[in-house]
């Protein structure tokens, strides 16, 4: 019924070849683009999936909460957890979990953290200047450090201080990259995440370091979730909290764990395993999406001097003194700062 290579329609091994075997992997995206050039806007990319290249279809797929959309199970399982909102298959179940997250990450909620975020941006700028004095800067790493430190600080009251330690930042990028690099493999073999649970960490680190990094992050979040569950309902001394290295400025709001434990959710949605997996997915996705967006935007501005100059002129109109922070409410009204 739908056009595309017959081999892609017959078996997932075609996708496996391009994503795992061809070159350094991850090539199926580009092969799909070639399929569109040959077959049109709708192509079959494996026995169970279609790929649509049509901007007008966006409104059909993402039609809002009134339309029921269950998540594709193989895609939901790729990060190796089932308790996160990201990996929830059922439309109705996803709405329950998303309803709990919405107020925590709402615009009004995060707006109160603007002074804290501004301080993280200032630290990012200082780190960029320092690294530029020493040579070229790998933007994705430093942006990922900034995003991760910011997300962890306001969601978990803890910062890994990646911006202050380039070596730690590179290690963290390797961890996040492991999640991305393993997803095509897990999509083909969804049992892999379960299988590695039986492998001792020391051995896993030797034979499959990518999986070892992922499992270590998941274990850390599980431990934090257990502590949060045990401490739920207790009043923590904020001074003692700061002595433990928590990032001051973001501690005026509850941690994500405390928010979920206090929210009106069924008891099964508040287990340490469930909220630990939610935390894992937020750290993994929350930092990478911001870092990737900033990296790509910076690249295109640097290779397009006209666009860079236009953006600078727009910013100068509302921020004549670069040493004075630009407020979000001002920035969001600028044409080049808004995606339409």
Give a summary of the structure in a few sentences:
Helices cover 62% and strands 3% of the residues. It is built from 18 helices and 2 strands. It starts with 5 loop residues before the first helix and ends in a 9-residue tail after the last helix.
Descriptive notes:
There is one protein chain. The chain has helices at 6-10, 13-21, 28-39, 58-61, 73-76, 91-101, 107-111, 114-134, 139-156, 166-188, 192-196, 201-207, 209-231, 238-243, 256-262, 272-303, 305-318, 328-331, and strands at 42-46, 49-52. The chain is mainly alpha-helical and 340 residues long. A hairpin with a 2-residue loop joins β1 (42-46) and β2. α9 crosses α10 and α10 crosses α13 (209-231). The longest helix has 32 residues, at 272-303.
Rounded to an integer in angstroms, the radius of gyration calculated over CA atoms is: 22 Å
- Estimated structural class: mainly alpha
Largest sheet: 2 strands, antiparallel
User: What is the molecular shape?
Assistant: globular
Write down the secondary-structure element order. HHHEEHHHHHHHHHHHHHHH
Q: Percent of residues in beta strands?
A: under 5%
**Mean pLDDT across residues:** 85
Low-confidence stretches: 236-247
Topology:
Elements: H1 6-10, H2 13-21, H3 28-39, E1 42-46, E2 49-52, H4 58-61, H5 73-76, H6 91-101, H7 107-111, H8 114-134, H9 139-156, H10 166-188, H11 192-196, H12 201-207, H13 209-231, H14 238-243, H15 256-262, H16 272-303, H17 305-318, H18 328-331
Helix pairs in contact: 8-9, 9-10, 9-16, 10-13, 12-13, 13-16, 16-17
Supply database-style keywords.
mainly alpha; 62% helix; globular; 18 helices; 340 residues; 3% strand
